[in-house]
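Q: Fold this one first, please.
A: Sequence and structure below.
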Amino acid sequence: MRLAILTISLAALPAALLPNDENRVTVVGHDRVTAAFAKGSPLIETGDYKIHASRRDGPGLAEIHTRDTDIAYVIQGSATLVTGGAAVNAKPTAAEELRGTAVRGGESRTLVPGDVVVIPNGVPHWFKEVNPPFLYYVVKVRQAERPATEGGI
């Protein structure tokens, strides 16, 4: 019986099968997570997604993310979230990010521990009232770039 040995050059493998920062398993230890929630900071940021340990001790600015959908899980505190409507005085603050002073119209809802909220990209949202500390994980899923459309964001 013959044994054939097959060798594969790494250069011949599709890029999706090669190790890189976006397709390796990542563990964020509990000490780092706890420290991140103490001040509210990102845990992981890649080109396709971000994970933040978010903290709010009071109301914030209205936000519109033009490409990121927010998926949030509340772990402590409560807050009134206003979604939809129109952001007041919205101005660009970074690439694909707008901030305003409030949201006019929209729907108000109270978020409490255990709630999950999904805010699609392009939807204005604002934490109008906060019972601190309000702690929540946010996974930001990045939408692929699309050609600009007339009247689009």
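Q: Good. Now the second chain.
A: Here it is, same layout.
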Amino acid sequence: MTAPPRKLLIIGGGFAGLECARRLANDERFEIILIDRTNHHLFQPLLYQVASASLAAPDIARSIRQILADAKNVTVLMDEISSIDTVAKQATGSSGSSGSSGTVYPFDTLLLAAGARTGYFGHDEWAKHSLGLKSLADAQNIRRTVLSNLERAELTTDDAERNRLMTIAIVGGGPTGVELAGAFADLVHRSLKSNFRRIDTSKLRIILIEGSELILETFDPDQSAYGRQRLEKLGVEVRNNTRVTEVRAGALDFKDGTTLEAAAIIWAAGVASSPLTASLGVPLDRGGRVTPNPDLSVPGQPDIFVAGDLVSMKDSEGKTVPGVAPAAVQMGAHIAKILREEASGNHTPRPAFCYFDKGMMAIIGKNYAVVRTDKFQLQGFIAWLAWLFVHIMFLIGFRNKLSVLLGWAYAYIVNTPSARIIVYPPAVPAPDKPPLGGS
């Protein structure tokens, strides 16, 4: 008698969850439900380009249903999981009929790969006065805010108000913060310089704020220095050793007692895992991440796996696994391999996860980037070409790759990105300022 298919519940349609589902596609031994709170898979490494109006949202996202359309054993659902019961082996979603407590999803095996959210180091109240960058909605909100602020600056006759509107503060000097700063510098100093009549967009202040000694701290010191040099050449103000003590509406307070007024405050300094990790009943680190067993299962729960940004661990060779897309993809593939082997009756000890480090990259405006791998380092134009090639190859779907490549080529030649339309005013208007067009 054939055993019934094993119920695999995957929470999260990011790189890890999607890779696991694709590896087990059409394997009749598994009945897979993949749940995500959005209907699309997002290529997060290019989110900053949507935020800075270099790309449109559809260029870096694709329907999860479309990706898995040929996987007959995979059901894709859009729901937000609110809790996980590891004893009863079921997860509860926020959907459901009126009066219902939510839809219940039973499982035999669970892969929790729900991703990360913006972390504020214990100051979650700062979120209402700043803009994070973890989703398409976040990216579009940043773009709306910055472009709307420029429109407001064009309207106002108050010099102090214009200066505030033309100040972008980016907190966090890692790759995300550096890439955002460089992209905004390119946008205002090249693409928008002839678009306004009453303001000089070259006077827009882009301030990158980092609490430690170096930006791009995970790169080599000479690459960090190169990154700072390139940003400053683009007109970005880089402030190292500057710690934020308070985020208020339109202002940042620093440890040294100074204050910076900025109409756009972008928070790229911290990462916190999905709150669902608290449902697993295991110790978590400061960011809410799980340290799994070497095989990526949760301690004491061999049928529950974690992957992606939820994981804090060292691999089988003692390397710290970074929270990057290649690591998440490799985790998803590793878990799928374990499940296939065990479904085939192979119950030998599970292999430990070994991360293949493909290096790190950060782009610093047009034509410049830094690349670091175990074997070599690149910086400048060659590094930028490598960055371009790698990111195109990682995009899922031919349309996405072609669209992004053509968009980049056009923007490169004419210095004019096409994704600069303000669809509606910022979700969070400036203090005491109604949205444009409002009463």
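Q: Anything worth noting on the second one?
A: The chain is about 30% helix and 20% strand.
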